[in-house]
Amino acid sequence: MSSVINTNHSHKRVLRARLKSFLRQIPQTEINNQSAAVLEALKPLLADYKHIACFMSMDRGEVVTTPILKWLFQAGKTVYLPRCTSTDASGHINLRNTGKPHPHLTFHRMRSYAAVESLRPQGKYQLREPLLEIPHPLPPKLDVILVPGVAFSPQNGARMGHGAGFYDDFIHRTLHHHAQKPLLVGLALQQQLVQDIPMEQHDNCMDAVVSGDGSIHWVS
């Protein structure tokens, strides 16, 4: 079993590097057009949900989320954004059974779109994150998480992230605190759809993947 896990991990590492290089070459105008199609598909999908976590998109190579966030506030949703931390900084429970502190996400409620616009790059990864809250908030009870990634499979909802395990850890953390998993919706440019993504034991599949042509791929 360990050899299979190691093979999958190596395969993911190679695939991730290739895809990231490819995604950086997509023209921004195309990314913007696909992002607009994703937003239109999300509007009816999210209509009956209230508490929604999103993410702040990076500069290139993924769905642009600022229009999505603006619409969420206009639609009266309760919006949360992630902040990178670690168990030694937050004091939260270690769920990886390593005996050592490890990275994880906290999600913070954003009170307005203006507050989102005011966010500036910070921290180790220079991401636009919510400001530090003390005490670090426990996982909120979310209805939906809009999930970023490097690649998604529309067939089985498999996801390949950036390799740090932040979202898989948060999903595990949410189950630990609430015993119920939110609806997981991956946001993908068409170039991020991959038929075969190697999976590891800790990986979580999406319930749906919304792609840049406006399609919603539900996973049965």
Automatic annotation (TrEMBL):
Its EC number is 6.3.3.2. Gene3D superfamilies: NagB/RpiA/CoA transferase-like (3.40.50.10420). It catalyses: (6S)-5-formyl-5,6,7,8-tetrahydrofolate + ATP = (6R)-5,10-methenyltetrahydrofolate + ADP + phosphate. Its cofactor is Mg(2+). One of its GO terms (biological process) is folic acid-containing compound biosynthetic process. Pfam families: 5-FTHF_cyc-lig (PF01812). GO terms for cellular component: mitochondrion. Keywords: ATP-binding, Magnesium, Metal-binding, Nucleotide-binding. One of its GO terms (molecular function) is 5-formyltetrahydrofolate cyclo-ligase activity. The keyword DNA damage does not apply. Substrate binds at residues 56, 62. ATP binds at residues 12-16, 159-167. InterPro entries: FTHF_cligase, FTHF_cligase-like_sf, NagB/RpiA_transferase-like. Belongs to the 5-formyltetrahydrofolate cyclo-ligase family. This is 5-formyltetrahydrofolate cyclo-ligase. It comes from Lachancea mirantina.
